[in-house]
Amino acid sequence: MAAPTTPLFEIDDLHARVAEAPAGETAAEILKGIDLTVQPGEIHAIMGPNGSGKSTLANTLLGNPDFEVTAGTIRLRGDDITDWDVDVRGKAGMFLGFQYPQSIAGVSVINFLRQALSARKGIDLSVLELRLSIMEWMERLEMDPSFADRYLNEGFSGGEKKRNEILQMAILEPEIAILDETDSGLDIDALQVVAKGVNEVRTARPELGVVLITHYQRLLEHLRPDHVHVLVDGRIVASGGMELAEQLEAEGYEAFRGVDA
Question: Which CATH fold topology does 9-256 show?
Answer without folding.
Answer: Rossmann fold (3.40.50)
